[in-house]
Automatic annotation (TrEMBL):
This is Putative pre-16S rRNA nuclease. It holds the Pfam family RuvX. Its main location: cytoplasm. Residues 2-100 form the YqgF/RNase H-like domain.
Amino acid sequence: MPRVLSIDYGTKRVGLAVTDPLKIIASPLDTVHSKDVIQYLQDYFQNEEVEAVVCGYPTNEEGEETDATRHVNAFINFFRKKFPTMPLHLQDESFSSQEALQAMINSGSKRKQRSKKSGNIDKVSAAIILQQFLEDY
């Protein structure tokens, strides 16, 4: 059964998450460097059946675009050129990083595991974005 994949795009790192085959639960998948994400996705799409992609879309508390939004928009345009037939949905990602950090603290993750350099927070953020999309969908 096809899955749904989620992207938490950042200019340095990109967090990725994926649903289970029944599309009930979102799980962290990987963190890749932003320059490698398209190649990673090409390889993933060749090996796994993906029916749609959800991309976190940054907005501020008023729902307006942020500085990060222009980087995400550039990525979205590039993604759509590379994968024109793949359905792409946007999901508000407000506070997903803070929620990811809190979830990691609650699960007993050590400080080193929660550091930005580890990339764990990026893929957990992607899972939170995807889970919110599944709940809204």
